[in-house]
UniProtKB/TrEMBL annotation:
This is Bacitracin ABC transporter ATP-binding protein. It comes from the Bacteria. PANTHER family: ALPHA-D-RIBOSE 1-METHYLPHOSPHONATE 5-TRIPHOSPHATE SYNTHASE SUBUNIT PHNL (PTHR42798:SF7), LIPOPROTEIN-RELEASING SYSTEM ATP-BINDING PROTEIN LOLD (PTHR42798). InterPro entries: AAA+_ATPase, ABC_transporter-like_ATP-bd, ABC_transporter-like_CS, MacB-like_ATP-bd, P-loop_NTPase. Residues 6-244 form the ABC transporter domain. It holds the Pfam family ABC_tran. The keyword Ubl conjugation does not apply. GO terms for cellular component: membrane protein complex. Belongs to the ABC transporter superfamily. Gene3D superfamilies: P-loop containing nucleotide triphosphate hydrolases. CDD domains: ABC_MJ0796_LolCDE_FtsE (cd03255). Keywords: ATP-binding, Nucleotide-binding, Transport. The lineage of its organism: Bacteria, Bacillati, Bacillota, Bacilli, Bacillales.
Amino acid sequence: MSDIILNVQQLHKDYVGEVNYKALKGIDFQLKRNEFVSVMGPSGSGKTTFLNCISTIDRPTNGSITINQKNPYELNDEDLAKFRRSELGFVFQDFNLVHTLTVEENILLPLTLDAVNAKEMTSRLAEVVEFLGIEEIMKKRTFEISGGQKQRVAIARAVIHQPSLLLADEPTGNLDSKAANSVMTLFQSIHETFQTSLLMVTHDPYVASFAERVIFMQDGMLYNEIQRGDHKKQFYQEIVDTLTFLGGGYHEL
Ligand SMILES: Nc1ncnc2c1ncn2[C@@H]1O[C@H](COP(=O)(O)OP(=O)(O)O)[C@@H](O)[C@H]1O
Ligand SMILES: [Mg+2]
């Protein structure tokens, strides 16, 4: 097994429309198996586009992406659907839950789509629900629970099929700081317990400091990266300093 879970080479993405826009201009990036990396950068720098190309929501204009040594863009539609469900988990800022379903039905959705048998579903559900501490809300509808609970449910749905790569775009963007902190603690324990590789976009330096490495994007390119040492507080300060530098440079352009 390769120790690289995600290999991105010379990734380019042009949005073609009335005005063409080069959103990604040649990104090289590798995520190690069981690594947790945060992606930061100014608004419009291409973070979401980067994640969407990896998750196959957006098709790259050029370059290559392999996840677990497979190139999702070389698969046919049916195999791609299977690949996404088995290898990838997604968590979004706005939770993306299905409002007509209960919490339990939302969490089971990926397994239902994969026609997993009932016994296996029940045991996986029990494990995830216990791990996330959401037993008491299983029969509720999504409008009956708080934002922090919604994100827990979305995370449960994203990890129930044990993806090798978990992708999150601003997962704490709609949460207050208390709920954000608890979601990040949860990500960290998922990462440690299940050896899930994690790539997460955030604009919040505190949230970013939960990762082992932070990469900074600017203007469709990778600008810098910093590795966490022994001290989270020092890591946080380095992130803030880099953002200050990047922010200044960005506005001067
Ligand atoms: N579907 C699209 N069509 C055209 N331009 C887009 C589209 N999606 C994003 N962009 C542009 O690409 C750039 C990068 O966007 P995005 O990846 O969303 O940045 P970020 O997530 O860092 O804020 C922005 O300038 C944005 O306006
Ligand atoms: Mg974005």
